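Hi U.,

Before I forget, here's the chain from the pilot set. I'm dumping it here mostly so it's searchable later in email.
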Amino acid sequence: MSVGGSSGGAARRGRLPEVSPRVFRRLAVASLVAVCLIVVSGAAVRLTGSGLGCPDWPTCYRAQVTPQLSLHPLVEFSNRMVTVVLVVLLVVTVLAALRRRPFRADLTWLSVGLLGGVLVQAVIGAFAVYTKLNPYVVQLHFLASIVLVAVAVVLVHRADRDYRAGSATRLVPRPVVFGGRAVVARLGVVLVAGTFTTGTGPHAGNATGQLVARRIPVPLRDMAELHSSLALLLVGTAMGLAVALHAIDVPERVQRGVRILCGVLVAQAAVGYTQYFTHLPAALVEVHVLGATVLAVGAMQFHLSLTDHPREQLAPTGPVERPKALEPQKVEVAG
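Structure:
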């Protein structure tokens, strides 16, 4: 019996600990922050001209992993290290999803998809290096990052909510739900147009003295006008939804969400016009990329907020109180 007990104890010690929904949600939030950081740091690589700072991949140079102590190699290598940290974090998140109690298959698949997407995105980054910053590959690299942001938002939203069949409650009329989907879809079109605009602009990602990176053979002004027109259409769609949601009886949090979304859209449009008329200063373009990331998060959160899923009801984890045993009573017998 002692041998069996020892082996059972060793097996229990060898297993990963169980993860509570609260801990898993914290990991999901950390993953979302890290994915957003990789978008912003990737833009910094391009805007500082550090895209070819490490001419090889995954090492910085063919026979050397670490970069030289100069600006462009350090910036490019730092972005790669952010990706490494993100991969480690997502591996932990996948393991946590497997050990989460109660277990949720949807959270596991989202975590695995997020990890796989980051690995695919890293490979696209390698192609960007080996194709000497081909603008179409750089576009795909950025858009893949935005898709990862959207998946991470869904993971955070689902992390502690009940997504069983029949648990959802629609908070707004069905046409408004379609309007929310239209906002997400039009934002995607605007982002694609924005990457084409970037591909025609001056920030190719290479530095002075390096091989001149290709540019998309379309005038910058034409692409900027198309991008701005699509952005204005997106702003109009969001504002139309805001008017509709304030004219009908919906929860305040939904109205607040659409107000915040409209505010971010207007601010992002103002940054976009300012950067164009000031000839695309790198710092302002970085702010614009950050705004695009925030918009991706906000649009997904707004769309998800139109349907309510209750918080996951968990079984009590504390000790169960047992009823006290009745004390024996003395019975006096007469006589």
